[in-house]
Each structure stands twice: as C-alpha cells, then as structure tokens.
Design goal:
Blueprint: H1 2-12, E1 25-35, E2 38-48, E3 53-59, H2 72-82, E4 86-90, H3 107-121, E5 127-137, H4 139-148, E6 157-160, H5 172-181, E7 183-186, E8 194-197, H6 198-206, H7 209-213, E9 220-225, H8 233-242, E10 249-253, H9 268-284
Parallel strand pairs: 3-4, 3-5, 5-6, 6-9, 9-10
Antiparallel strand pairs: 1-2, 2-4, 7-8
Helix pairs in contact: 3-4
C-alpha cells in the first residue's frame, strides 16, 4: 500500500519516471505515518527516476516543527535531494501539522516516532531502506542520539547543536505543576505555549544521553556553532569523545549561534552548515 501511495503522489507531482533510468526530477510528498494512537505528518523531498536513494530522517527541536527555525530544514531538503538523498522531515506530536497533543511528546516518544518513520519509508518506492540516516537540531539532536543508541536502524548520525541536557528547560514552578496535575506549560517568545507532560520532564532528567551516544556504531557528525549560548559547544565535544566509529567528527561553524544565524538575513553560515551536512551524508550513506 505504501509503495502504491508513493507512486501516486509522485505521478501527481509530475515527477515519476521509468525505474532504473537517470534521475529526472524531485518529488515532494506529504504523508501520514501511523504510530500507535497517533499519526506522524512527514514531508519527503527526494530525487526520482533513478536507482533507489538513501534517506535521512530529520528531527526538529523544542517548540519547532518539520520546517525548523528560519525554515532551516525546508531550505536543506532540496539540497539533499539534489545530492541524491531523500530528505524526510517529521512533525512530532503537537507540532506543525500533527493533530496529537504535545502532552504525549517525550524523548522516548520521539525515538518511537523516528523508528516508525524509518520503517515506513523503507517500504516506499525509490528509497533504499538499508541506507537510512538520522539528524536532529537541538533537542532533535538529543533524540537523534537516543534513537541511534537504541537500535541499528540508523547508518549515519548528524546533529546540529545536539543537546546532552534538556531538563533545565523545566523550572521548579513547572515541575511542581507537572507533579500535581500531570502536565505543565512551556512558554516561548515566538509561539503559543505547549502542554508539556510530566513524562517529558521525568525522561529529560533520567536519560543519560551521552551513554546512548557511546553505544552508537554508526559514524556521528556533531556540527556546532562556536557562539552557541543555548547548548554548550562542549556537548558536541563530549559526544565525539565517546564516538565509536572512526569516521565520526566534530565540525565547528565559526561565529554561528544556536540557530546558525538563519534569522540575520545573511545565510553564509547556514550555507556552510548545509554544505557540511549534505557532504556528510553523501560520504556515509
């Protein structure tokens, strides 16, 4: 069913072509992936018409969505496709086009969603299900490390300012409220508050992200801005210190903040970030 659905979507996009021939275009697919009691909205940007291509599942950070801050993921996706890689952007519960409550979102839920997406896309025509990577930005990077440390699904891992500690986003008042009623509210300057479940806080406190990173057999690329004052640059250094695969590496983006300066109007540093990201997955998938 999934293969037929994908073929129909490609045909509607005017991008389908004979199997085995040279790539002739780019398909844009919007699909829903079932996972337990909810569905996961995904957007796939992929080359069409040639051999099966590798894919990268892209996990977003706290308070964001599958387009990411400053449309960072939205801008990256066509660059991935141009390099022969399917970019798979994901909305976690309560984010973007998801109709599920944010209250069910937690680190373990993110890992479960990522695995569900990987299994789903492996059954799509045009995607090589044996060559799937994962990437994430900020807490999305946290989730990418947890996912890759939990299974052998992922053949390559990359983080943009991946965080080892996220529990500090919940202050004492939020924790007290969650303990009393099972949820609290996380507030942001750029969007409406999110209903944060107690499970999110409990897992953020208890999960040792670095220990998961140490279990990963796939190569890990840790990309981090040197002026990031949200997630310490040292987090990426720590990940690399425990990385098992010899291909793993740390990439410093000099002068970049946590958002890699996407809101400044100057995309020079983002272009560097995107170039490093695409090159990494071309090399490792």
């Amino acid at each position: 069913m999934y293969r037929s659905l994908a073929l129909c979507a490609m045909a509607l996009a005017g991008c389908a072509s004979a199997p085995g021939g040279p790539a002739t275009g780019v398909a844009e697919l919007s699909l829903l992936v079932p996972n337990g009691d909810h569905q996961i909205p995904i957007a796939i940007t992929m080359p069409t018409g040639g051999a099966d291509v590798p894919a990268v599942v892209m996990l977003h950070g706290t308070g964001s969505n599958k387009d990411e801050a400053g449309n960072g993921y939205l801008m990256l996706a066509p660059r991935m496709a141009a390099a022969g890689i399917a970019a798979v952007r994901v909305d976690f519960p309560g984010s973007g086009e998801s109709t599920a409550s944010y209250e069910i979102y937690s680190n373990s839920e993110a890992v479960s969603d990522a695995e569900a997406v990987a299994a789903f896309i492996a059954d799509l025509d045009g995607i090589d299900g044996k060559r799937v990577g994962v990437m994430g930005w900020s807490q999305g990077g946290t989730d990418a490390l947890l996912a890759a440390g939990s299974s052998r699904t992922w053949k390559s891992v990359l983080t943009w300012a991946g965080a080892l500690v996220i529990g500090d986003m919940a202050d004492e008042a939020m924790r007290a409220e969650a303990a009393e009623q099972g949820y609290t509210w996380m507030k942001f300057e750029w969007r409406e508050p999110l209903k944060l479940g107690k499970k999110w806080i409990d897992e953020a406190d208890s999960m040792d992200v670095l220990s998961y990173a140490a279990k990963i057999k796939a190569p890990i690329c840790s990309v981090h801005g040197t002026l990031d004052d949200t997630v310490p640059f040292a987090d990426s250094e720590k990940v690399q210190s425990v990385a098992r695969n010899k291909k793993s590496r740390l990439v410093a983006i000099e002068g970049a903040d946590h958002t890699f300066c996407v809101f400044t109007g100057d995309l020079t540093l983002f272009d560097q970030l995107a170039g490093e990201t695409v090159a990494w997955f071309v090399e490792t998938l």
